[in-house]
């Protein structure tokens, strides 16, 4: 069985050791390195080529935002999963804009963290439930609050076709129209048409909103 190679970046020694011990207990994980600041994380990611980097944000020398940006530029195939204590929008949005595959809070349970790492490794967007709810409510202020609270309900998606649901699921993985077209074996212009229809039916503005909506939808269905 191929193990998921993980690089952990955190400047708090106690947190670092605690998470390291947890990761070492997972039979499908391999902890390949520990970075104590963002600069080390970038250098070690380039050298060790992990599958997933667990990235704290508030670190010395170079913070997690800049480190995530550099890793995305130098090694775009590496998945960066933010693991931090900050839940405010001023941290969340910049982190996701770096290309990070997800944003988790350190309060998350061990089993949830393990599953988030496994899912991020597969290319699926991972958002802590509190982050997902906060971002979604801020991104769709044009909807009445009752509608916003019920976006994950069946009523909100019943107008989508089976193919549109497939496209929506691929959007959560951050795939382009061309990549989705290759996976679904359809023309790129067909995917573009499906994306436009999805946004229109769900009264959303862009793919980011669609991805956040889908994360809530598919998580609630589990």
UniProtKB/TrEMBL annotation:
What InterPro entries does the entry give? CheY-like_superfamily, NreC/VraR/RcsB-like_REC, Sig_transdc_resp-reg_receiver, Tscrpt_reg_LuxR_C, WalR-like
**UniProt name for this protein:** Response regulator transcription factor
What Gene3D superfamilies is this protein classified in?
A: 3.40.50.2300
**Which ranges carry the Response regulatory domain?**
5-121
Q: Which PANTHER family match?
A: TWO-COMPONENT RESPONSE REGULATOR
Q: List the keywords (alphabetical).
A: DNA-binding, Phosphoprotein, Transcription, Transcription regulation
List, for all copies, the residue spans of the domain called HTH luxR-type. 153-218
The chain residues annotated with the modification 4-aspartylphosphate are 56
